[in-house]
Amino acid sequence: MDVWKADVAIVGAGGAGLRAAIAAAESDPSLKIALVSKVYPMRSHTVAAEGGSAGVVQAHDSLEHHFHDTVAGGDWLCEQDVVEDFVARSTEEMVQLEHWGCPWSRKADGHINVRAFGGMKIERTWFAADKTGFHMLHTLFQTSIKYPSIRRFDEHFCLDLVVEDGRVQGVVVVDIASRRFTLIQANAVILATGGAGRVFRENTNGGIVTGDGMALAYRHGVPLRDMEFVQYHPTCMPGTGLLFTEACRGEGGFLLNRDGYRYLQDYGLGPAEPTPRNKAMELGPRDRLSQAFWYEQQKGRTIDGPHGAVVHLDLRHLGEAKLRERLPQIYELAEEFLGVDPAKTPIPVRPAVHYTMGGILVDGRCAAPLPGLYAAGECSSVGIHGANRLGSNSLAELCVFGKTAGVEAAAFAKSVAHGRADVLLKQAGASQQRALALVTDTSGTERIATLRKEMAQSMEDGCGIYRQADTMQATCDKLAELRERYRRVRVEDTSSVWNTEWLLAIELGYQLEVAQAMAWSALERRESRGAHQRLDGYGERDDVNFLRHSLAYHAGADAPRIGYGDVKITRSAPGTRAYGAAGEQAEKAEQERAAQPGPAGEAHRG
Amino acid sequence: MADTSDTGKRMRIEVLRYRPEQDAEPFLQGYDVPYSDDMSVLQGLQYIKDWLDGTLSFRWSCRMAICGSCGMMIDGEPRLACKTFLRDFPAGSVRVEALAHFPIERDLVIRMDDFLAKLESIKPYIIPKEARSLAQGEYLQTPAELDVYEQFSSCINCLLCYAACPQYGLNPDFVGPGIMALLHRYNADSRDGGASARMEVAGSEAGVFNCTAVGYCSEVCPKHVDPANAVNQNKTRAAGDYFLRLVTGKGGAK
Amino acid sequence: MNTPDPRRPYVRPMAGWWRRNPFFVEYMVHEATALFVAAYALVLLVGLLRLAQGEAAWNGWLDALRSPVALVFHVVLLAAFVYHCWTWFRIMPKTMPPLVIRGKRVAPGVITACGVAATVVCSLVVLVVAWGATR
């Protein structure tokens, strides 16, 4: 095994990993930074983000508004001190990207433009047409090339963390092209590996989104927080799950049921107006919109399609010129994948799994409870999304907390000395052997695809938009069975050059454990909040018992142990989460109440 | 995986296989894949990998033509497998090979470190024309100024243009269409002042004059980047720089 | 210990590359038609030479041009010229900076059409002048 000595090792080179690498390199150019990615950085799934990235910029907007939108959007399961930090720094990060060359869409006067997004009171979503993630990722990647201290390990797969003396001291990686192993010795490790949406059947995620970093940290005793909160994005392509950005609605698109009726007005999101009103109708938050779809389907008011029920995303009234300018990628996706001209015909859409709100437990400095370990981006749970993420907060998160993780990890790395390589090598060698056992043991009988398919179907059945104890329990049981069968997984390919079947088997191992954390966290949360909605008598939010973060702890071959942690509340006491006209009324009442002298609002239930 | 159980239609997918530890040279292997009309070539390959032959290797990720991973030769043309559909091969068979002009690492996986090295050589980042602090806010850039470089910034690095460029195939030192598009993207950005450094690459032995205006690169580009345009605009500029140097007797790619 | 590098990248040969794709065949035809342009330049050059050699030589050259073989040759040349001209203007939009008129980019098709139109006009002017001069 080769050894490469770094100060900071970063696993994952999407938006968060790249931002962290740049931040670490800028904080001290003498530090050696290893940037590991199982794909070339520009393939990372940040690339697929479409709509935009939040940062307060308009004169009539405020950090306070962004804070409240985020906290209420997350159904008060947010770490409010972290949200305060987030909204305070996101605009600066967007400007930083602008200085690095990101081609933000502009107003006629040359200033950057912003668009409306779901659950946001005032337009604050920076965008680069409908390819915002793509442009942010390429900007960050190309900018990272400027820093000679960043050594990339492209197409290297991370097999394990090396933990010694109670702290992380490196990672074990394998070169996909040659199957050569390297121990990257590092005093600080940042995980930035993205989400885990591929554990579900119909999802918007790329094939690489398999929860690798979550599983790595989890196996080493770091809890995964709030894993039951999985976001269904309301407007996705039937069958493939490909995303039609929320910006479709931000620009004025409608959602119609089979009668051509804007059904969201029946779900507390009205009134239905011809132009988008922020935080109303189609600009409600994603959880509410996906839930409304579910009810429409129950009522038989959806449209039958070859891949299940759909509703219509109607963009016709926006006209071809505006669609080509603001939503060019959406236009092409509809034309090429569905044969639909969105200027002439509504696009059939249905909800699909999009985002993992939970993740590796970290504090506001992106530090995990395991010394030396940091995490940023979708794989982490820094606490800003709570029970439901608002659209355009995740791209901003990559930058804000990517930077935090880079700076903090660099500082930590300088405060400790490298451990003894021989001790670490022994551990790394054991990891290598475990991984290689998948190809050397040819007695396996279980097909990877069969296990993966059963897992994904079971997650959809048990942990979908609406949940109940019996189906969640069935999913938990199924996952236990699959983990047991996984021990007999068969890898046909024994070669050492570009053996992707071997990697799929390792990824499946990661996925099964992350899925278990999701399913058990969901089963144990006996209330409804944000993206976690139950039908079995726990249909209401229960702040008395569950205004708490869930924490899933790895328990070997057994089901995870679920514990709970406190929620940090600074300025916003849990209130009623309302949108549309009801939301405006509630806001007015809240303002009046806040104007009265006396203790800050008491916790509501609802 | 697309639901393929009910259509009864089957597609013959011929794949160029190459496993360096077993095969002296590449060979075609055929698979019969059930398909429906909305299935992409990528989904066909995934079906093979999942259910017929786990040893077939290929790159893919986003499935929506933005990550740039799944460039392949499909019936001899450079295409993204994710947005090429099986329904468009009515004869019932399709041939899939690794991207032309690149060394085959294995099966449909090409070796692309050459592209990365070239990308690193062109300083693909803003070299500010004038310094500006974050507190001063964004640089102003009008929609017209954005329009000048925006298309070139849309390159997804899928390498289809390289597979379409015979000059790159004949001389792999040529920087090639995609890199020239990115080089031009920065040179044409109103915020950038680093053009002269980059023009050294454009005007070099490996630079734009390797291009003979075949134009196929722009035809196959899935993102309408028009890399041929970037190359040819820089021929004019590089020639101008050359004559300016002759006249002034010094480097002058300003 | 790591094993030696098992990679053995396979480089495919380029021989016969232009036959692999209809686009490349077309490109080669375009390039080949340039030879016809060169050939016609040679014909004219010979004419110039003949002119310098005196009237008899010049008339001999003119007679040679009137032979059936020369006529067929010129028809072929004309066809090659038209093809070269058309394909040349077709690639032209790709070779120039964006042309913006009244805030809108001029479409590639328009640029090609303008090029072709300019060629037609120039050719007509030459024809008319030549016709007028020889009357």
From TrEMBL, chain A:
Cofactor(s) needed for function:
FAD
* Segments forming domain FAD-dependent oxidoreductase 2 FAD-binding: 7-395
Q: Where is this region: Disordered?
A: 576-606
The EC number on file is 1.3.5.1
- Its membrane topology, per UniProt? Peripheral membrane protein
Note the PROSITE patterns from the entry. Answer: FRD_SDH_FAD_BINDING
Entries under InterPro entries matching the protein: FAD-dep_OxRdtase_2_FAD-bd, FAD/NAD-bd_sf, FRD_SDH_FAD_BS, Fum_R/Succ_DH_flav-like_C_sf, Fum_Rdtase/Succ_DH_flav-like_C, Fum_red_fp, SdhA/FrdA/AprA, Succ_DH/fumarate_Rdtase_cat_sf
Protein family membership = Belongs to the FAD-dependent oxidoreductase 2 family. FRD/SDH subfamily.
| Protein name, per record | Fumarate reductase flavoprotein subunit
Q: What is the lineage of its organism?
A: Bacteria, Pseudomonadati, Pseudomonadota, Betaproteobacteria, Rhodocyclales
UniProtKB/TrEMBL annotation, chain C:
Which InterPro entries does the annotation name?
Fumarate_red_C, SQR/QFR_C/D
| Record keywords, A-Z | Cell membrane, Membrane, Transmembrane, Transmembrane helix
Question: Which parts of the chain span the membrane according to its record?
Answer: 70-89, 110-133
Q: Which Pfam families match?
A: Fumarate_red_C
What is the name listed in the Swiss-Prot or TrEMBL entry for this protein?
A: Fumarate reductase subunit C
